[in-house]
Amino acid sequence: MGFFDNHRDTLNQPLQAVRSRGYWSAYPEIPSGKIYGETAKAANEPLIDKASEAFASAGVALSVDLKGGVFVNQSARFSDYHATGTNLTEAACFTGAAFVADRFHIATACRPLVASPVAQHVQ
Predict the structure, then answer these.
(1) pTM for the whole thing?
(2) At the top level of its lineage, which domain of life is listed (predicted)?
């Protein structure tokens, strides 16, 4: 069993949670090569893409493999405002285009860009 097979129920929880309350946080586990094998991350890339699509369809931002500073939805993490722009009952928590014209909402998927070995040596 791979990482995503082991956590399929966990992946379904955010979709249900965000539709009912507008947010969800998971524990910070990544598909470690030490635990799941050296090819675990690469083998599960299609599943990460499917998760990104599912989160976007639910109107929720998704961050994958963030190892440095976290800025995605950080203001919501540490405030009383936990919501998504696509949840109309909670959209008042955000200041954005929907404040003027409630037609457009954006949910993004965020993954850090990994530089190739060649790019790392070019100065």
Answers:
(1) 0.39
(2) Bacteria
Q: Which domain holds residue 45?
A: 3-121
The answer to whether the beta carbons of residues 25 and 17 sit under 8 Å apart is no
Instruction: Label residue 123 exposed, middle or buried (CB < 10 Å: 0-12, 13-18, 19+).
Output: exposed
Q: What domain count does the chain have?
A: 1
**Of 112 and 38, the one with more pLDDT:** 38
Output the six-digit token pair for 6: 């082991």
pLDDT, tens digit, 9 for 90 and up, residues 45-56: 888 888 888 888
For β-strands 62-63 and 109-110, DSSP reports them as: parallel
Closest CA to 48 of 106, 3, 100, 114: 3
70 — phi, psi (to 5°)?
-105, 120
**Could you give the 3-state DSSP secondary structure of residue 101?**
coil
